[in-house]
Amino acid sequence: MSTDHRGALDYITTSFCDQCWEKQLTEEEEKESHKQREMELGKKKVDKMIEHVRGLQSTEQVPIAYVLNRLMDEIRFERDLKRRVWFYGYLTDCMVQDLELVKAKRSPKQRSPRWLCNKSRVDAMDFKLWFSYARSGYIPTPPRWKPGVASIIPS
User: Fold this and answer.
1) 76, 99, 101, 141 - which has most CB atoms within 10 Å?
2) In angstroms, what CA-CA distances link 154 with 6, 40, 100, 141?
3) What percent of the chain has pLDDT over 90?
4) Within 13 Å and on the Cβ side, how many CA atoms surround 136?
5) Contacts of 65 (CB under 8 A, 6+ apart)
6) Which of 143, 138, 127, 121 is nearest to 87 (CA)?
7) Apex CA 57: angle with CA 130 and CA 39, to 5°?
8) Are 132 and 84 in contact (CB under 8 A)?
9) pLDDT greater than 70 at residue 9
């Protein structure tokens, strides 16, 4: 493969005969439909899990740090401050009902409110499955967390 004077690779264009072009198009359509079916099956799994989580009732509450640590461990992200802040904001905006997040009274020394959540719901949640579909856009996000804005989460 040749390069130009800046080191960028040249594009190689392939030409197909009509028969090969039709075959190429059908293969691409099959791949796309297969990918779409897998995404829909995964979304059904996520919906089923969320319904199960919403049905759990318990009185044991844990701080939101418990959720953040569990989420970061399951999706294998480093625990740097930017990602923790993003996930904190996302959880407090999107997952309030699912995890039964509630604001507790804060002491005068605290700058932000203290969030508590339902421990049994957090333990029942499969964050790895949920995050893979949240990142692909199958789980709705609030307007404030648009993909361009939340660019600190790696692809």
Assistant:
1) 99
2) 28, 23, 27, 17
3) 6
4) 15
5) none
6) 127
7) 20
8) no
9) no
